[in-house]
Amino acid sequence: MNNFQLEEHPHQRLNILTGEWVLVSPHRTKRPWQGKVEKVNKDPLPTYDAACYLCPGNSRMGGDVNPDYKAPFAFTNDFGALMADTPAGEVLTDNLLHARGVKGICRVICFSPRHDLTLPLLETADIRKVITLWLEEYRQLSADPAIKYIQIFENKGDIMGCSNPHPHGQIWATSDVPAELIKETSHQKRYYDATGKSLLQSYVTLELEKQERIVCENEHFVALVPFWAVWPFETMIISKRHVPDITHFTEAEHMALAEILKRLTTKYDNLFETSFPYSAGMHQAPVNDGAHPEWHWHMHFYPPLLRSASVKKFMVGYELLASPQRDITPEWAAKKLQSLPEVHYSL
Fold first, then answer.
1. Poorest-confidence range of 20-29, 47-56, 88-97, 212-221?
2. Are strands 298-302 and 235-239 parallel, antiparallel or unpaired?
3. CATH code given to domain 15-27+36-42+49-339
4. Are 112 and 129 within 8 A, CB to CB?
């Protein structure tokens, strides 16, 4: 007799986008916690900070002065990880030491002139303005044939390495396709070639039927905890329509994306009544690389908090050396997030 139960017994789950496995150990949620506790900064941010490099009218470290912007604002990162003028070159020694030059452009996206307004605190119409700027930047960057991939992302919170509290994100455009995207392209293409369908469209259809990991949805998007989630409260936003990148969304879909971003990030803040930290980013088709009919737009959210606003999940030991592992199940995390109100706790 098979008594195996996902909610009780250790098991592995397959990430269908990358082909990697995650170990789930639900029985470990009963263990006491005596690990590290993070300090939580509860001090409210001012609407404007004269010392902030991103506030309107202020000087940045590179010497440039921000305009007195009234809407989302973008500029080239003064200390970008990539440079557009990197000379071509490669090092290969005895087939053991291999390096090659990479070109790219790093842009910074200030979400609002307000120093204190994160995505969940912005009005939906103002998040729509952020999406408009993402779209404009994507189109401009993809016009350069040397660019092969464009990563739109946000690091929120100092424990995620965010160097400035002014709400902002980044866009890195690179002359190569990064490793994570190579994996996702490969697995989506394999499924598409075999079935003629989008891997994530089939997955979303199944998730909507089962209703076990859905956090929230609207007409055009679903926010869910992936079956294979690694981080305790990891989520994905997936478009219900199969499109390869942000340029294919309609005006109605852009508004729906703004709405579901506000709803999901509000639930995150409400979970532990704190400005919830995360790394989040869109995954979409490579550019200037031929057709990618297999690609389906989605957005990952990787938040580190585990038990409270002060207890963080660390990737250590077995997780670094062998396989990612989680204790609370994705189903439990989804139900918890789904149950939270969509009005911000601070209001």
1. 20-29
2. antiparallel
3. 3.30.428.10
4. no
2 Cβ neighbours under 8 A, 6+ residues apart: none
Are the C-beta atoms of 228 and 203 separated by less than 8 Å? no
Task: Find where tokens 């739109």 sit.
Answer: 152
What is the residue extent of each domain of the chain? 15-27+36-42+49-339
In this prediction, residue 36 has a pLDDT band, given cuts at 50, 70 and 90, of: low
Rounded distance, CA 264 to CA 118, Å? 13
In sign, the C-alpha dihedral spanning 237, 241, 242, 243 is negative
pLDDT of residue 29: 67
DSSP state for residue 192 in the 8-state scheme: H
Torsions phi, psi of 153, nearest 5? -155, 170
The model's confidence at residue 34, banded by pLDDT at 50, 70 and 90, is very low
DSSP string, 316-327: -THHHHT--EES
Alpha carbons 24 and 255: distance in angstroms, whole number: 36
Beta strands in the chain (DSSP E): 11-14, 21-24, 73-76, 90-93, 97-100, 104-110, 149-156, 168-174, 214-217, 221-224, 235-239, 278-283, 298-302, 305-308, 311-312, 325-326
**Tokens for 6?**
């996902």
Can you point out the beta strands (E) in 143-248? 149-156, 168-174, 214-217, 221-224, 235-239
Query: Cα 56 to chain center, whole Å?
Result: 26
Strand blocks (E) in 203-269: 214-217, 221-224, 235-239
pTM for the complete prediction? 0.95
Query: Residue 35 pLDDT > 70, yes or no?
Result: no
**Residue ranges with strand state E in 210-302:** 214-217, 221-224, 235-239, 278-283, 298-302
Per-residue confidence (pLDDT) for residue 162, from 0 to 100: 82
Two tokens at 242? 């199969």
Catalytic residues: 168
